[in-house]
Amino acid sequence: MGPAAAALAVAGRGVGSCAGAIRRINGCDNAMRRGAGSIRPPRTLPILAVAAGGVIGSTGRVLAAEVGPHPASGWPVTTLAVNLIGAFLLGAYLARRQRAVTGPWSLQMWAIGALGSFTTFSGFSLEVVQLLEAGRSGIAAWYVAASMIGGLAAAIAGDAAGSRRL
Amino acid sequence: MIQVVAILAGAVGAVARYTAGGWVQRRTGPRFPSGTAAVNLAGALCLGVAAGALDPGSGAHALAAGFLGGFTTFSTWMVETLALGRRSSERLLALANLTLLLALGVAVAAAGYRVAS
Q1: What does B13-49 look like in DSSP terms, one character per residue?
Q2: N or C: which end of chain B has fewer CB atoms below 10 A?
């Protein structure tokens, strides 16, 4: 665990607060600042950072779909690989961010924009449906298990890798 | 060309996720990662509809799949589940976030696919 566990802590620490990973991922911090009646933060820059990161992450996902294998067994190996790599990198990024100075919109660009759009929940869900429709419920079950267990393990491994001293 | 459309749609999807997810999260409080859950379920439903209604080789399908690929996220779902699970008092919420979103995501994608095809 170590300090990175605190880095990923989600639950808020007071009524109306918006602490931890949720604040960082969903941009609650902007809302908090507005709610406090202070000067409105610039809205354009974080959105541009998310869009720029979105181009990077989407390029990776679309390219992977182009060049990745499509085995005849129907195993969605490309989506699985993309999702596990993305979960690892997001865990590593958030842990590293606790220990290193990052640019002002780095979180919006890399965590929310790039790694958020590189991975996909809708593609995963649809592939499970298509496997079930095709009568391949065994592969569907293994795909779900590999994604859930692998995704959590990848996020834990990324957190550990990002928490190590360089 | 169709790949460029999918990539740019994905960037627009990322911005939509950031604004819509943040909007939901601010209205539901910090205890549960509701913003990510909401965009993921909405995106899974829409991708089911798109897969049922659109020709897989068409530009409209590339646009929809690209947008929804960027709109929904697996990595944030995993990291938020892990962060919840590391607080012993939130273990049940973490389990609910994992299993409910999984079951509901497959259910709404299937419903969208069946209705549209």
Answers
A1: HHHHHHHHHHHHHHHH-SSS-HHHHHHHHHHHHHHHH
A2: N
Quick check: A137 contacting B, CB < 8 Å? Answer: no
- Contact predicate A34/A107, CB 8 Å: no
Reported ipTM: the value is 0.97
Query: Tens digit of pLDDT for each residue in B56-90?
Result: 989 999 999 999 999 999 999 999 999 999 998 99
Of A51, A62, A119, the CB nearest to B66: A62
Read off the DSSP letter of residue A41: P
Between residues 85 and 124 of chain A, which touch chain B (CB distance below 8 Å)? 86-87, 89-91, 94, 108, 111-113, 115-124
For B93, the enclosing helix (H) or strand (E) is: helix B91-116
What does the pLDDT look like over A139-165, one tens digit per residue? 999 999 999 999 999 999 999 999 987
- Whose CA is closest to A21, among A111, A150, A147? A111
Could you tell me the mean pLDDT of each successive run of 10 residues in chain A, 166 residues long?
34 38 55 50 87 98 94 92 98 94 92 98 98 96 98 98 86
Tell whether A78 lies on the interface with B, counting CB pairs under 8 A: no
Buried-exposed string B57-73: b where 16+ CB fall within 10 A, e elsewhere? eeeebbbbbbbbbbbbb
Structure tokens at A162: 């990002």
